[in-house]
Write a structure and sequence with these properties.
- Two copies of one chain form a homodimer.
- With 574 residues, chain A is of the alpha/beta class.
- Helix content of chain A is 27%, strand content 28%.
- The first copy, chain A, is built from 16 helices and 29 strands.
- In chain A, strands 1, 2, 3, 4, 5, 14, 15 and 16 form an eight-stranded mixed beta sheet that branches. In chain A, strands 18-17-22-21-24-23-25-26 form an eight-stranded mixed beta sheet, with helices on both faces.
- In chain A, a hairpin with a 2-residue loop joins strand 27 (558-561) and strand 28 (564-567).
- The longest helix of chain A has 18 residues, at 105-122.
- The radius of gyration of chain A is 25 Å and the shape is elongated.
């Protein structure tokens, strides 16, 4: 701390000067002693300087309301909001989240360090602490076709950046445990810093090898049994409640039943849409839900604050105590956790919520590059044998492999011969992924069940993790129309029905983010989602988010990539 | 981790290769889940690679005995052993302490970075991890007369040293909270690293200001009330059981009575003599005592292992889990905590306990430099008014100020006038401190009660923190004889009786450490302590250790320094 600031704070702490701001009559949750204390909170220069009997130049009477430190989202991606990242930060901050641990994985996969720098720049002046974990898997795996490749060398420039805390979620578990030298170089580069994990479905032995590489967190645990296996190896488990993946209920149920300590747990959203944040809250939603299931309010607050701060080495974040940043939330109760006031660095955030996008580098506005498409590449022969169909699972981003005989029809080829080909029937649709970064012409085609789409196609350039163009449809014509529409708009979401584009949400920034306001994007998205549900998508999923995970080869069990259908468990193209 | 090592460990973890060593049939304390698990511990290249059903090239059957990670002494000084630092490390390691957080404060005060480097060098190949916190207060305070001055500039060379974890105990609390620029420069130099505290007796406001400077630990807390004040501000409290200061009982009693969480507590010895370690153990003694008072064995083990490791940012220390250093202790029970086997980096330490001193730099062998002594400087006039006497307190290094009229006698001066001077009577003795580093001739003289010495003088060049020559006696002749004896030997302990040197333990290395074996030193020390007790020193103190703290101006309430009597509370020379 600069000496001048320290002296001002020390004088206020010692009551030699009045504090700049005093929050009077607070019930303060002390995350160190597990007690709730009555007191006044003195703040000077954005820092808490004391708890006790203080007078301030400015004073706010909290009338006995509860105060905790601002909550921490221990792991999230900002790109999934599809609007300027400031929007999510501002919305979540209203709900009491004042620290964000961001993994710029999507931007990095499309645009490398330029994408990461874009997010760092856009979030610089947020009403919250926004820290970054540098994307470790760009491309996500060796079988991915991403827009950029990040090696340890490109990452070096982030070492020493105060807003960079470590290495982002290491998805390529096998590169780690097999000792891939390129992966090792990244792990070594971030030696002594935090390395986030992403490790669903590993065996005990694989998980041990993975942890041994120095990877200390995971947010992918979806069962109590699995997270306790991770905990027993010392991992910190981020309990996730996002828009798509919701793991809290199963994990917390187990913790409560077994009366486990909650020391190694934090909360995260991973990917949460702004409308969901507006509707139910952000990390305060995780806390509220955990408390409703039987976690003590103080334990839940610790998970949302000091434990996440300690996990990421943030020494001045996560507690209402002298020397900590004055990130403070006034709550209605320790049951409902509705934020009444939010302070970031000692200032009420109300005046800092206006979105002020910064200029976008031109190269991020032109990232969709498709080769000429040969429609024949979309055809799947139906030979009467079982075919590895991607089975979508309600409320999950996991998939299951279903080997079934595809519905088929007989067509006559150009040479006059008849052949039996896959004919989607709305129960089993066609899925295709088009490489879109370097116009390589790679197209992977497969079959998918559970999406239920009839009479059209739905496509997206948001498609984890490489963000190629992914499309599901029940006929090839609409599939191609959808892909060409996204080529035209430089990326986005589109719905095609009976040969016509119904509507398109353009996402021209990296094919991930809109240059329009949140309300514009939100209105259009609502309309498009309603349409998607009318076209048969079940209400157990979000049409676009669920679609966007179907090309992701790091989550079991089976995916479609630009190189073809991929069995994640066997780690091979089929 | 180097890739070659990682691959070997990963292969063993995945059971593709046999582990190098497997400890079979262990009851393993898991500090993450708070459970005791039955299992085998697989070890390769000094690292734990897995817990479970493993086979090893070498196997040891533990027959159901308990295993924890090696214990951590969160704060200690090695110089107080007065022998080569390897001796303490080896002895404590036998009792299951495998990680030491060392503050080379005494060596630094005598010999600056040369002294620190000596300790780093001597402990390099120990059968334990020996980490250093760089002494922050050299001299301890502005009113100290030390042998060396360490500014931030001299400390820079330690940044980046893997064995240096941060800044050593910051004793000069007022330099901190008053914003002294030299202190601030040191705190800034270690920004992002751990900064150890030393903060007894501060008010709430002072402690808040101190913590705000980023100082996060304290080992000086001697009451439950005080450590809970520190805990409420987020400090980690090291519960100390040393040879002189024993704080565990009072603190643990409070924790147990109030059912407090033990998350922010560790254990330390601070200063523990080798004979005490041999007699009662090291950190396992703290653990045993805490458990006997009602702390759960698992909570106590966590305080002695993972909590200390986390406090100091040691990511691979403190747990029996994959990826952690194979520092393991096999215990007889989780009640008695007698170490049956100790492994450091996967090797039984038995073969590594031989002491192999490394050469000592010549400048460290010649550090006692006294000016010509004018005996008149020892005289204290007795004017019949109350005199600020240093009151020693049984079992404590704290002192209390007692303003009493000194016993006196009338003498005739050279000019024939009579004057009344202080005449020690065994209840109130004379204390004197002679500057010995730069031959400045400074001599502080005072009166002390509670030492009870009759018929001689006891002197030491070990005298916290500046290690000038301190002496207590009941007559000036013996006081001078004792000081001259230590000048002759280059420092040490000496006892003078009726004008004759009874015996001297020479400590020629910095005036702090002997160049002889432990058994030689120990035998002599025993003899000398027995003599001291016979001369009147009460059994409620260790004659030499208690003596060595009487010049220390950072512990309340009153001390004698080369500049005179010092009131710690008022922070002024009297």
């Amino acid at each position: 701390m600069k000496l001048e600031k320290y002296i001002a704070c020390s004088r206020a702490a010692q009551k030699l000067d009045k504090a700049e701001l005093v929050l009077k009559n607070a019930k303060i949750v002390n995350v160190f002693t597990d007690r709730v204390e009555d007191g006044n909170i003195a703040i000077t220069k954005g820092m808490i300087v004391g708890i006790g009997d203080f007078e301030g130049i400015e004073e706010i009477d909290l009338k006995g309301q509860y105060v905790t430190s601002g909550f921490i989202d221990a792991h999230l991606h900002l790109e999934s909001t599809m609007v300027n990242p400031q929007v999510l930060i501002s919305q979540a901050a209203r709900h009491g989240t004042t620290t964000f641990i961001v993994d710029p994985h999507e931007a990095a996969n499309v645009a490398g360090t330029v994408g990461i720098d874009y997010l760092l720049d856009q979030t610089k002046d947020s009403p919250a602490h926004v820290y970054f974990m540098i994307a470790s898997c760009v491309p996500a795996t060796e079988i991915d076709d991403s827009g950029a490749i990040l090696t340890a060398k490109e990452m070096e420039k982030y070492i020493g950046n105060r807003r960079v805390l470590g290495l982002g979620e290491v998805m390529d578990c096998f590169a780690v445990i097999n000792g891939d030298p390129k992966m090792n170089a990244k792990l070594e580069l971030f030696d002594g810093k935090v390395k986030d994990g992403h490790a669903p479905g590993l065996t005990d032995e694989q998980l041990a090898a993975y942890v041994m590489a120095g990877i200390t967190t995971d947010h992918e645990g979806s069962s109590y049994h699995y997270v306790m296996k991770e905990r027993s190896m010392g991992m910190t488990c981020h309990i996730r409640e996002g828009s798509a993946a919701r793991n809290l209920e199963r994990i917390v149920k187990g913790i409560v039943e077994h009366n486990d300590n909650t020391e190694g747990f934090c909360f995260c959203t991973d990917d949460k849409h702004i409308e969901d944040i507006m509707a139910e809250g952000d990390i305060n939603f995780n806390v509220r839900k955990a408390v409703s299931m039987g976690i003590s309010p103080i334990a839940a607050v610790k998970m949302a604050t000091i434990q996440a701060a300690r996990c990421y080495g943030l020494r001045r974040t996560g507690a209402v105590a002298p020397g900590f940043d004055a990130d403070l939330v006034v709550w209605d109760s320790l049951k409902d956790f509705n934020a009444q006031m939010v302070f970031y660095n000692g200032e009420l955030i109300n005046d800092r919520l206006k979105i002020r996008p910064k200029p976008c580098p031109p190269e991020l506005m032109n990232t969709v590059h498709l080769a000429e498409i040969d429609p024949k590449k979309l055809v799947i022969k139906a030979d009467g044998k079982p075919f590895p169909v991607i089975g979508m699972i309600p409320y999950e981003i996991l998939t299951e492999r279903k080997d079934v005989v595809l519905p088929s029809t007989v067509v006559t080829g150009e040479d006059g011969t008849e052949e039996s080909i896959f004919a989607p029937n709305g129960e089993i649709d066609k899925i295709a992924v088009f490489e879109r970064h370097h116009a390589t012409g790679k197209i992977g085609v497969g079959a998918i069940s559970g999406f239920g789409l009839k009479g059209g196609a739905i496509a997206s350039s948001v498609s984890h993790d490489s963000h190629n163009i992914i499309v599901i449809g029940d006929n090839d014509r609409d599939i191609l129309t959808a892909v060409r529409e996204l080529e035209r708009t430089g990326g986005g979401y589109t719905i095609v029905e009976n040969g016509e584009v119904f509507d398109t949400l353009a996402l021209p920034i990296m094919g991930l983010i809109s240059d329009r306001s949140y309300s514009t994007v939100s209105k259009k998205l609502k309309k498009m989602k309603n349409k998607a549900y009318k076209m048969g998508i079940p209400k157990t999923m979000d049409p676009f988010i669920s679609l966007s995970f179907m090309a992701l080869p790091v989550i079991p069990e089976i995916r479609c990539t630009p190189r073809g259908i991929f069995d994640v468990k066997k780690w091979q193209l089929l």
